[in-house]
Amino acid sequence: MKKVGIREVAQEANVSTATVSRVLNNRGYISQETRDKVQAAMKKLEYYPNDLARALYKKRTYTVGLIFPSNVHPFQAELIQDIEYLLSNQGYKVLLCNSLNNPEKEIAYLTMLKKNQVDGIIVGTHNKHIDGYKNTKLPVIAIDRDLGKNTATVSCDNYAGGQMAVQLLIDRGCKQILDIRGDSSIKLPANERTVAYRDLMKKYSLESHVLEVPFVLAADQKRQIIEDYLGSHPQIDGIFAGDDLLASLAIFYLETHHKKVPDDVKVIGFDGAKETLLYNPRLTTIRQPIEQIARTATEKLINEIKGQKETDQLKLPVTLFTGHTV
Amino acid sequence: MKKVGIREVAQEANVSTATVSRVLNNRGYISQETRDKVQAAMKKLEYYPNDLARALYKKRTYTVGLIFPSNVHPFQAELIQDIEYLLSNQGYKVLLCNSLNNPEKEIAYLTMLKKNQVDGIIVGTHNKHIDGYKNTKLPVIAIDRDLGKNTATVSCDNYAGGQMAVQLLIDRGCKQILDIRGDSSIKLPANERTVAYRDLMKKYSLESHVLEVPFVLAADQKRQIIEDYLGSHPQIDGIFAGDDLLASLAIFYLETHHKKVPDDVKVIGFDGAKETLLYNPRLTTIRQPIEQIARTATEKLINEIKGQKETDQLKLPVTLFTGHTV
Question: Which SMART domains has this protein been placed in (chains A, B) (predicted)?
Answer without folding.
Answer: HTH_LACI
